[in-house]
């Protein structure tokens, strides 16, 4: 049974399409433009309602809030799916360039469109809400105590007991088992919706979002991976050797893949937490950001204020008072919440917020700068039409804040804001770059393989009975890692990573890890920086901020290469900036690995 919302949407579409469409005649450019304007008005109204319902559910996870979010999401999905299908009626119409781009984006509007049949949108929304909530409320027993993902992450970061690490890794991954049945049904429904819009499957729909053909985009990500893969393999070889020295052959052999639970992170996507194990011998770092934050009296609010100050130094207006009144910055003790850090724009205007269970450590110090980048980007493009209120491509949205965090990670910046009295000299470059690589470079293959797995699932190449086997195979192929032990037959390890049950495409993060260095290199050049790229901070560079804002204000109004050129002067994604940044470390790693049997 269609809701009142959908009845109104149908009327709006018919009105916008005009008499020609109603009588079966070929639509005109004027009718295409009117259709798009009506569609944007309806989407703006429904989006705000859905966003507020999602915010409430994420901050108060109950049966009632899950029901409310599922209902709102279903209505949003129904409307967007209907509009996307109606947009296809204007294929071949010689619309003006702005209208033509909006029609294209309308067909790509949803990450997972529902099939256009009664009840499908509600079913899809319930599946997504349930998967997200199952993940977010997940707990398991460790040493007789129920622990959360936050607790488990702390253990993986701090413990050096292989038996405990394995138990915690396997405990959290076991939480994901119940998600599999829902994911199978979700993939089926999402594919049905994507096919109804003219795409081969959901994966092809996702790959169509980059102003190029889906297969061309897949090839583009392969090209970028080949640019950075040799460096990753050097890092992997070095880290494996240090882990072998720490734990011995029985735990971590000198050759082959690395045990996933030994790398300090639940998904082995960043390895910075094991710096104490892999730090260079004979070279010490004069400061530890985790300890520095504590000694300087930082709390979660002060960390966010510091992040705001970075953007203010580039000339951006302060965050609105409502940001501080409405954001979730500290994990509440009285209720279940979604702790995964995220940035929100609830009204496409000024109601911007972050939601994260902030800890006082270096990782969250960088995460704060990252999440705020989303908010400043959202505010920059707020004056664009509804369909252009988005990033140039989704990699841009993730890269904006990461670009800021590159400056915020430097000792130069820490000195600029008074956290360090004096920035250390060049003798500490290798420890600094190794810490950065353990997060930035270690992430790259994981950033690529998550969607490689989903593309295989959506295409039918990987069937439900092969889900876990295919996941493990890809992790070994790209990351060179393996689980700490045999996996049970009912394991669903992909579901232990938020973005899978949360249905967030992941290749954006791989792209962001390239773009951020491309942005950083361009910004430092504009600022007249003459030193090593890894020591550059653009703090207080208002001319850089002004040009950066010009890029952000464009939103998704044009093809992303043109938008990239506004700030960088380049029209192609280029991972050579990564090599420029880490050049001293890569040379050092080659020397350290001499005589080692690298690869897996």
Describe the secondary-structure layout.
Blueprint: H1 4-22, H2 29-59, H3 63-87, H4 97-107, H5 120-136, E1 140-142, E2 145-147, H6 149-158, H7 162-175, H8 179-196, H9 202-207, H10 214-247, E3 258-259, H11 275-278, H12 289-295, H13 300-313, H14 321-326, E4 342-345, E5 352-355, H15 362-380, H16 394-408, H17 411-416, H18 429-459, H19 467-479, E6 481-482, H20 507-526, H21 542-553, H22 560-568, H23 576-592
Parallel strand pairs: 3-6
Antiparallel strand pairs: 1-2, 4-5
Helix pairs in contact: 1-2, 1-3, 2-3, 3-4, 3-5, 5-8, 6-7, 10-18, 10-23, 13-15, 15-16, 16-20, 18-19, 18-20, 18-23, 20-23, 21-22
Tell me what you see in this structure:
With 600 residues, the chain is mainly alpha-helical. Helix content is 60%, strand content 3%. The chain contains 23 helices and 6 strands. The chain has helices spanning 4-22, 29-59, 63-87, 97-107, 120-136, 149-158, 162-175, 179-196, 202-207, 214-247, 275-278, 289-295, 300-313, 321-326, 362-380, 394-408, 411-416, 429-459, 467-479, 507-526, 542-553, 560-568, 576-592; strands at residues 140-142, 145-147, 258-259, 342-345, 352-355, 481-482. A two-stranded antiparallel ribbon has the order 1-2. Strand 1 (140-142) and strand 2 form a beta hairpin. The longest helix is centred in the middle third of the chain and has 34 residues, at 214-247. It is globular. The termini are far apart. The model is unreliable at 1-23 (pLDDT under 50).
